[in-house]
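Reviewers of the previous submission asked for a worked example of the structure-prediction workflow described in the proposal, so we include one complete record here. The input consisted solely of the amino acid sequence. No template or homolog information was supplied to the procedure at any stage.
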Amino acid sequence: METSLLERGAVMDKGKFSKNPERLVQSGISGVSFGKHVTVISPCNIYGCVIGRDVFIGPFVEIQRNSIIGDRTRIQSHSFICEMVEIGEDCFIGHGVMFINDVFSSGSPARGRKELWKSTVIGNRVLLGSNATILPVRICDDVVIGAGAVVTKNIDSPGVYAGNPARLLRSFD
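From that input alone, the workflow returned the following structure tokens.
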């Protein structure tokens, strides 16, 4: 029985594999505009974006270029904020929240064709529960999204939303 790549330590196998990548890019912080009193817990990967004042960013977070994070927003660990996302002020982004900008409108991944990507706008005082998935949508101010919810459509009315797809559970009147 042939040994696996792991068992062989990914050593050379007829020139197909090596112990080192051909290209290694370090994660970190690059080209970011930070407001005052921002806390970032490493490791993280934050580049080409704008971070407001008094923001907290937990470990293992990625925030991509052309994203904006509003003042006093807290982003918990393992969250992914892709390009073209704007998050308002006083928001809470739970652990493992994923933002999506490619909805495979051509039937497959856009593969970097940014003209196929769509933007997301999150209002002020929005709470996104852990492991929520946010597709390209607009969410108004004063909304709570439950843990594990999948937001597939715009949310125009303040309230509590949960489920897949996310549905209104309770309005804020």
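The chain has a mean pLDDT of 91. We consider this example representative of the routine output the project will generate in years two and three.
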